[in-house]
Amino acid sequence: MPPSPAFFDLQVNGYAGVDFNQDDLSADDLHTACAALEAGGVAGILATIITEDLDLMCGRLRRLAELRGHDPLARSLIAGFHIEGPFISPADGYRGAHPKDAVRPAEVSTMQRLLDAANGLTRVVTLAPEFDANLDVTRLLAKQGIAVSAGHCDPTLEQLRAAIDAGLRLFTHLGNGCPMQMHRHDNIVQRVLSLAERLWITFIADGVHVPYFALRNYLSAAGIDRCIVVTDAIAPAGKGPGRYRLGRWDLQIGPDLVARSPDGSHLIGSGMTMPRAAENLVREVGLSAEEAKRLTSTNPRRVVVDLV
Ligand SMILES: [Zn+2]
Predict the structure, then answer these.
(1) 75-112, pLDDT tens digit by residue?
(2) Which residues are in the CB-under-5-Å shell of ion ligand 1?
(3) Residue 33 in contact with residue 73, Cβ under 8 Å?
(4) At a CB cut-off of 8 Å and minimum separation 6, what does 239 contact?
(5) CA of 279 to the centre of ligand 1 (A)
(6) What's the gap in Å between 248 CA and the centre of ligand 1?
(7) What's the rounded Cα separation, in Å, for the pair 54 and 69?
(8) How many helices (H) and strands (E) in the chain?
(9) What's the pTM?
């Protein structure tokens, strides 16, 4: 048997036909997704819950936590939860596929409700620092050892620096969750890269969310030791083309496994698997197998386990 790559994925919305953001998730669904992830050499994930009406988000987190508790495979595979939203930028482009009516400014009491629903399993929260007044939520999470990640946001360089001082540790899928057209120099990608020494940066390495030539530039600028690859996988990952759901989206997924909004204006998660991401990094980006392993296994583990 080949040595297990033991992938660790910080952003998984669903897998093998199962959507973690569905209200009627069953024990069988969760087990199916976990078994397929394990079969693909994935040793750990953060199940990701995205922006929705707050009661629905809480219900989904509660259900996931409960189902995980009853399934030994899910317990070993799901290291915790990544809550992406609802405290992100409402601006078109930055908001991406997240529903506008459910996006809201960060608020400590609301965050606490989500944390309670997740029953101690929250490991990463993605939010927009410029909508976290006084960085209160960032501080609350950092104090509890939860990795705060900026994403779907457009903070100034000063706002980013202040957020890092308050405990921000990550940036979620750089190059996505931002508009197609931005200022040619002073944009979110350049600002984040300039602060790479103080941030972990995640990327979706499917060649569609970020073209490989640009990913190569980003990895060179930030350094492999500050970067992490995630799949941002949704239900078709590990399964194949067909009709799937992610939250409110009803998606027709073609042979390229790319999930696009019905009007084609933005991408909605990916159909990629971790083994495919690692293969892309070696074959398309030109990394060594050892560098690919750092991006898909070693570094993401450090964020969740070591919180450095
Ligand atoms: Zn996102």
Answers:
(1) 999 999 999 999 999 999 999 989 999 999 999 999 99
(2) 177
(3) no
(4) 15, 16, 17, 36
(5) 22
(6) 15
(7) 23
(8) 11, 14
(9) 0.95
